[in-house]
Design a protein that fits this description.
The chain has about 500 residues and is of the alpha+beta class. It folds into three domains: about 180 residues, 2-Layer Sandwich (Beta-Lactamase), CATH 3.30.450; about 90 residues, Signal transduction histidine kinase, dimerisation/phosphotransfer (DHp) domain (Helix Hairpins), CATH 1.10.287.130; about 140 residues, Heat Shock Protein 90 (2-Layer Sandwich). The chain is about 55% helix and about 15% strand. It contains eleven helices and twelve strands. The strands form three sheets. It has a five-stranded antiparallel beta sheet, sandwiched between helices. Strands 7-9-10-12-11 form a five-stranded mixed beta sheet. A two-stranded antiparallel ribbon has the order 6-8. The longest helix is centred in the middle third of the chain and has 60 residues. The protein is rod-shaped, with a radius of gyration of 55 Å. It starts with a helix and ends in a 6-residue tail after the last strand.
Length: about 500
């Protein structure tokens, strides 16, 4: 199966889009996997840091006696802050503190903060989440984890109960942030996406322009080629695309060579046709002239008056034959201009059958006419009944001449679209294969007594009437068909 260039280009465009989508999917998957791995590692570090706070607090509270005060004073808060400071001193990018559900934050530290000074204020934006994770750890009596994913960062919090008999509502917590949109990996991903998007968009626009440009230019070439009304190739204008223009130049050069070859072939064909015509005319003229000369010489040498009169009659018959030959030649070279008229097809066919009725009876051949009912619907046809009748009479006469006794000749008429089709079919031996290709040329005949001009004249008349005369393949006899416009078109 052949594939068009347009289909190949569309397929290439789809492959680019699919590959871009697959690449983007891989980029996103890889980035998400990287972020998830980072979050997992951060959770482990947060849990370890929270255990460090718990251990430091256990050591701090090891000598504690009595219940925890109702309100924690500033001195105790500072001591708890120092506990957190020591616990997180070696945990980069992790902040944390000690939380009591009844009072909130009791101590906060971010010892690895890289700002201009130590960070001592609890982050206000994250305070509700800090309270949430500490409440979950205090209620469950076991560590709790909270993860909040934002557009630019991932917030991770971990809380764990603090041991000791002084107050079971104390929890330690740790927190860190993972940049999700500002780190180098994210920037590289965005740059890659931008390059990929620009590449896909550029490829799509370029391929789209290429498809449109090629389609328009190829459509114009098709229109120029279809506009040619003769056998020569039309001259094609350049398209502006080098690849197509090479094809255009090659077609134009081929058209010029073809036109030149057709001119030479037409000239040779005309010379050959003239030669065949001259040979046929010479043959048709020489035989009667030779016969007349022989009869005249015999008449001059004979003393019998009756023999001389017979010779003169023969000579007159041959002169009449030559006259018919010349008249047929003139008819073939100078066909009469059609005179169209409305024709009753039934009467037209019946008239031809009546004209050849006696001849058909003498030959013991059935001559019948058949009119297709569809041809009688609507307005009647219009054509030159006299000239078209000459063609049909020639075909019927030839059919009767070649049909054996007991055979049948059928004359029919039907409508084919906007055309009238008249057919003549017989039960004879058919047209010999050796003359089938040259049947409509002058002096080509399958009958010993024929001049071979009848079908040539018929084809010339058909051409003047915008009609087509053809011999159709047939399983029996000969099948001729003349197709002409239902309504005559003036030239």
């Amino acid at each position: 199966m052949l594939t068009s260039l347009r289909s190949l280009l569309i397929g290439l465009w789809l492959l680019i889009v699919l590959s871009a989508g697959a690449t983007g999917f891989l980029f996103v998957s890889f980035y998400r996997e990287t972020a998830s791995v980072q979050a997992g590692r951060a959770q482990d570090r947060l849990a370890s840091a929270c255990r460090g706070i718990a251990d430091r607090y256990t050591f701090f509270a090891s000598g504690w006696r009595g219940p925890w005060p109702r309100r924690t004073d500033e001195e105790l808060r500072q001591q708890l802050t120092n506990v957190v400071q020591l616990a997180l001193a070696h945990s980069p990018e992790i902040e944390g503190g000690i939380w009591r559900e009844a009072e909130g934050s009791l101590g906060y530290a971010f010892p690895t903060y890289e700002g201009t000074g130590p960070k001592t204020d609890l982050p206000a934006a994250e305070q509700p989440t800090i309270g949430e994770v500490n409440a979950a750890a205090a209620t469950a009596g076991k560590p709790a984890m909270v993860e909040r994913r934002g557009r630019s960062q991932i917030l991770l919090l971990h809380a764990c109960p603090l041991g000791g008999a002084t107050d079971t509502g104390l929890t330690g917590w740790t927190m860190t942030r993972i940049a999700a949109g500002a780190e180098p990996a994210y920037n590289r991903l965005m740059i890659g996406f931008a390059v990929l998007a620009a590449t896909v968009l550029g490829s799509a626009l370029w391929l789209g322009w290429l498809l449109v440009a090629w389609s328009r230019r190829i459509a114009r070439l098709e229109a120029d080629l279809a506009a040619g009304h003769d056998a020569d190739l039309p001259h094609l204008s350049p398209t502006g695309l080098p690849e197509l223009d090479r094809l255009v130049h090659a077609l134009n050069a081929s058209g010029e060579r073809l036109s030149e070859a057709r001119r030479r072939a037409a000239g040779a064909e005309r010379l050959a046709a003239v030669g065949r015509l001259v040979a046929g005319v010479a043959h048709e003229v020489r035989n009667p002239v030779a016969a007349m000369r022989l009869k005249a010489e015999n008449a001059l040498a004979a003393a019998d008056e009756q023999r001389r009169i017979s010779a003169l009659g023969f000579i007159l018959d041959q002169i009449a034959r030559l006259d018919r030959l010349l008249r047929d030649l003139l008819t073939m070279s100078q066909p009469r201009e059609p005179k169209a008229e409305t024709v009753d097809l039934a009467r037209f066919l019946a008239g031809i059958v009546v004209a050849f009725g006696d001849r058909a009876d003498a030959s013991q051949v059935s001559l019948i006419d058949r009119l297709d009912p569809a041809a009688g619907v609507g307005s009647p046809p219009s054509f030159d009944a006299g000239e078209i009748g000459r063609i049909v009479e020639n075909l019927v006469g030839n059919a009767l001449r070649h049909t054996p006794a007991g055979g049948r000749v059928e004359l029919s008429a039907t409508r084919r679209g906007e055309n009238l089709v008249i057919a003549v079919r017989d039960d004879g031996p058919g047209v010999p294969s050796q003359i089938r290709e040259r049947l409509f040329e002058p002096f080509v005949t399958g009958h010993p007594e024929g001049t071979g001009l009848g079908l040539a004249i018929a084809r010339e008349i058909a051409g003047v009437h915008h009609a087509t005369l053809r011999l159709l393949p047939s399983d029996r006899g000969a099948h001729f068909e003349i197709e002409l416009p239902w309504r005559h078109r003036p030239s």
